[in-house]
């Protein structure tokens, strides 16, 4: 009887296991079908063949407009490797999940876009899919480019058809498992991506809407100025609240904070000057933003710069607040070491009083970029130097040399602490661990 009972018990448990496995497979199948359905949502059919011919004058105007739009989106910034041919790709974009390599956008038929048509290109921007239907990684910011209009996508594609073709195969992405799979990417898209169609906001005028289109679409500004979750997705509710640029270890300041990067209380001309010249009476651009100004925004029309300023100034910001007290006392040795380094290497340009020199060396006293809670940028400047972009309005900018070869990590922490806690500055001191994090 015991054997019979044991046999029936085993059979029962086996049946339960089989039902569980069957249910799990059914659940996986349902989830897979849902992922597929969600990833196809909003897709437009790809039209076969080339675009219909247009007259030569209209085509030239289309190409010129496309070149302007590609510059507004700073497309060459990623799709040109250092020392490589323009638009031929190969630049690695570091992410927390591995390295994604930008593709070849030249019209070479084997390694570039030579066999693409305008609809293929539109689908890549709008839906994040390659010519063959393969899902693209969102290091290519289609989550923002999905807002670009079809007319602008066609203009950019027309321009790319005119650049010299370059034979350069695209490097394979170096992503860790499971992020290197199309299945994982499909799940990510189902959770965090929906294609959009740009629509002007009737509550605002044409200038504001143009600025919103450039900033939120082509400019993809919140790709840096917004925080990302553990899966690399930008939280739209926190779109402008600042974020770390992982590949370069710079912090893109919050555009919703008066004590970081908010410009609501600046004049329109102040914002335009920063985007066009790389500096104004309040701030100067360094790091990744210097590249954006150099490659992109300095070349935009006065009307588009004014429109971007209008939109950026409309972003709600938290009220200005008084500087907070120093979070922790600074050790006497750190005080003396930091002051000595500043006197030897910094005071010659920034002054003994930290007031700097107008239009040459920025003041450190009261400098909000220096006082942010996240000290990444000031650490990066001390280590790697600070270089403004060369622009028409500032063709020979002053720069700050790097000190990573002269100062130890402890000395960097000491001098950064000194400038954050002197001349009335009341930011928190910086420790060795923070220097190591951002080196």
List keywords for this structure.
three-stranded antiparallel β-sheet; single chain; mainly alpha; 439 residues; two-stranded antiparallel ribbon; 18 helices; Cytochrome Bc1 Complex, Chain D, domain 2; globular
Cα gyration radius (Å): 26 Å
* Total helical elements: 18
| Count of β-strands | 7
Percent range for helical residues? Answer: 40-55%
Order of helices and strands: HHHEEHHHEHHHEEHHHHHHHEEHH
Mean pLDDT score: 87
Beta-strand share of residues: under 5%
| C-alpha termini separation | 73 Å
Q: What is the SS-derived class? A: mainly alpha
Our count of domains comes out at: 3
Biggest β-sheet, characterized? 3 strands, antiparallel
**Strand order, largest beta sheet:** 1-2-3
What is the 3D shape? globular
Uncertain residue segments: 1-5, 14-38, 322-326
Can you offer a commentary on this structure?
- The protein has 18 helices and 7 strands.
- It has 439 residues and is mainly alpha-helical.
- It folds into 3 domains: 137 residues, no CATH class; 100 residues, no CATH class; 107 residues, Cytochrome Bc1 Complex, Chain D, domain 2 (Orthogonal Bundle).
- Strands 1-2-3 form a 3-stranded antiparallel sheet, with no helix packed on it.
- A hairpin with a 4-residue loop joins strand 4 and strand 5.
